[in-house]
Amino acid sequence: MDVKSEIIAQFRQVAEQQDKRLAPLTDNLALLDSGLDSLCFAIVVARLETSLGADPFSDDEDARFPVTFGDFIRFYENAAR
Amino acid sequence: MKMPQDNPASLWSAIIATGNLSSRILVGLNAKANWAELVEGSIVESPSDELRGKSVLLATIDQFRAAAALIELDGIARRVVLFPPDVSREHLAYVAKTAEADILVTDQPDLASVNHGIGRVIFCNQGIAQAHADRGEQIETEWILLTSGTTGVPKLAVHTLASLAGSARHTESSPAPIVWSTFYDMRRYGGLHIFLHAALTGTSLVVSSAQESVADFLTRAGAHGVTHISGTPSHWRRALMSPWANRIAPEYIRLSGEIVDQAILNQVRSQYPHARVAHTFASTEAGVGFNVDDGLMGFPADVLDSNPLIEMKVKDGTLRIRSSRTAFRYLGADSPTLKDAEGFVDTGDTLELRDGRYYFTGRRDGIINVGGFKVHPEEVEAVINRHPVVAMSLVRAKRNPITGALVVADVVLKAMPVDNGAIAQQCDILQYCRAELDPHKVPTAINIVPMLTIGESGKLVRHA
Lengths: 81, 464
What we know:
The complex is a heterodimer.
Chain A: H1 3-17, H2 38-52, H3 56-59, H4 69-80
Helix pairs in contact in A: 1-2
Chain B: H1 11-18, E1 25-27, E2 32-34, H2 35-40, E3 41-44, H3 48-51, E4 55-59, H4 63-73, E5 79-82, H5 92-98, E6 103-106, E7 120-130, E8 142-147, E9 155-160, H6 161-165, E10 179-182, H7 189-201, E11 204-207, H8 214-223, E12 228-231, H9 233-240, E13 252-255, H10 262-271, E14 276-283, E15 287-292, E16 299-300, E17 310-315, E18 318-323, E19 345-354, E20 357-363, E21 368-370, E22 373-375, H11 377-386, E23 390-400, E24 404-413, H12 421-436, E25 445-448
Parallel strand pairs in B: 1-11, 4-5, 4-6, 5-8, 6-7, 10-11, 10-12, 12-13, 13-14, 24-25
Antiparallel strand pairs in B: 1-2, 3-7, 8-9, 14-15, 16-20, 17-18, 18-19, 19-20, 21-22, 23-24
Helix pairs in contact in B: 1-7, 9-10
């Protein structure tokens, strides 16, 4: 499965379910400007763990948190390798 | 200004005793004042005589106004109830009745028309106004903090300034001025603790605001040179996911209020390599517990015996605390008992001992902590069980790296659906929950299961 399109799909679905207005998902978009709050991110991460079989936030205790949407995708692409 | 009686001391007189008031500031989102202006002025549009001996419910949106009102009310009012802005207004009437509130102090004009049952509503000034009365004789004020109850109705825990502030006193040990800040709301124990610490140890304080983005708060905190800052692991995860995390350069960082895992400790230290990073245990009911600064999650077993003023023990798997810093009791006729016969408060936090170190594993009562918001499984189950297709349900925590935990539900249906009926019913139950519950209480997954285990007591078995 394409990691990026799965992530985009989850961002959109969670935003819709949580009544959030999602900003255009460009690589440079700061995650905190995406329109999603902490609860939304928590749900996205839980769903990606199910769909992609990876949770890079929990797998590496020393990983730096992603800051932009592009970072977020690379975070998961690296975990999937 | 007439000086008050020395005994009992109030927040007002304790702040004056720290000295150096005009060089220290309290910074809110829209207002700023030095501590001299705070103790000399007034935020409540009412003469002190009207507040004297009364039970006052303090429900402001703005934290700066709440701070100023607390300085004004402690020692004058019989009781002050701190009503946080994130607590639903539907509980206002219950809280007011339970606390026998005489006066509502607020900055929200529309609260005047809400049915809260309080006879007198006083609005806050926009900023600090000239004070009009001497304080005269001071009394010991009860401070009431709200904590979440099983059914969603808050419990009211009774503190005093002494139990909240302990022996926090000004010391001259720090050569450079300290500027505290916190991600917490100061109507919550974690935030109130920092407010009182700053007030009584003679530092400045930058308070947060729910109306402000993380970026704006970090920028404002950085602009005021914050040196010390506290928050929950969830607060810190959110801050570290922000490009503005580098706007602050704190010397000291404290995490509390949720289970601290090794990842968040490492990430905070990586972002702020020059800061001392500590995590603490404290709760509204049990008061302050202990401080851990060795950079590791959990705490060394000998921490339990490290402070003669705070007795701690592990009994039946949970942490118990006895000290002068615990809450005294809950308000209300039908409220549960807060302390056991020996005066210990059961924190309800479960611990596991491995190689001489204790690790928090969760809550015995199953309370789920979603990013600092407590969720009682029973409240969510009650909503799910009202759905017509549901026979029974079990709500539990699923570990999550962003909010610590999320809520998930195992649901037994009255009749097993055929084909794609299960998906439709999952969606329908979720829609129902979204309409009935706050967002953090809504299950993030509904698992349809054939059965749930019932124990010999006739109750759901909550732990595998």
